[in-house]
Every structure is written in structure tokens, then in C-alpha cells.
Amino acid sequence: MKDYLEKLEIGEEGLTKDQIKGIIAEASKMTTNEVNKIKNELEKEIAEKDEVIKSLNEDIKKSPSADELENLKSKIADYETKEKERKEQEDKKIFEENLNKNVLEAIGDAEFVNERTKNAIINEVKTALQDKANVGKSAKDIFETITKDSTDIFKNKNELKDMPDIQESKPAEGKSTSEGIKINPMFKTDF
After folding, report:
1. Is the whole-model pTM more than 0.85?
2. Which residues pair with 11 in a beta bridge?
3. Which of 102, 113, 139, 147 has the fewest CB atoms within 10 Å around its CB?
């Protein structure tokens, strides 16, 4: 518009009617150009927003319903619960294996009179290891405390295995015995 106005020659009487019409036409043209420019920018922006809205609507159509979401939440909660239980079982199994290993190492090669006694002592050691009062004590210390001064829980290593049974022995030579009673040759005496 500035260029158009600078080209005008204004006389003493001012602007002519044609010049005024030209200024109005030029202003109208400029206004129309600006309006069209703004309109095009807005239309472009609206088209972009329409695409976003269309995409979001498609996403909404693809997304699960409220019931499906609740169902999924329920399944996820079930899976989490099962995983937690599985992890607890696994941790418990590992704990038990380590506990058994420690107790068996503590027992070493001790020979019990029977399996029932062995299992009872093992369980007693396990229970004592888990007791807060025994924190810091080893399985060996607890085993020794439990079995200290106990009798009849270990096999007697001094058991006479090769000694013949009294019933199988022959009467002592030269000694009289009553009928049916036999003396073990180990007790045979030669006086």
C-alpha cells in the first residue's frame, strides 16, 4: 500500500475521486490478500487438527471397552498374584535347600540309630535356626547343643558285630553245662 501511495501525485485540491477509489481498491486488495492468507493458514491448521481427531477416534474405536479393560485388569491382577505365589514358593524352596544343606553339613557323618531320629534332629535344628533367639549361631553349633548329653540317638561305634551269638556257640570243652545252655567260647576259661 505504501508503494501505491508514494506513486500518487496529490494536487492542491487533494485527492481526486479516482485516486480515492484506487486507494480503496488497493486497501481492499491488501485486505483480501491478508484475509486469504489467514484463511489458508486456518484451513491448513483445521485440516491438521481434523487428522488428529480422526486418528484419535480410530484409536478410541480400537481401544477396549470399559468391560474389556476391567477384564484385562482382573487378568493382570491374577497373573501378578500367581507370579507372587510362584516367586514365594521358589524362594521358600531355595531357602529350604540351603537350610537342608547347612544342617546336613553340620551333622556331617554322624550315624543315627534310625531315620526317624535323624529326621527329628534335622527338624529340630531347622526350627532352632529360624528362631530369632539363635541369630548368629551356626547349624553346627545348634546341632551340637541339641545332641550334647543325649543318649540313644547315635549308633554305637563300639558295637560288637563279629561276636558270635550265645545261641550258636558250643558248650565249653571240659566244663559241664546244664542242658540247653551254651557258653560263648569267648568266655571259655582254662583253669
Report:
1. no
2. 14
3. 113
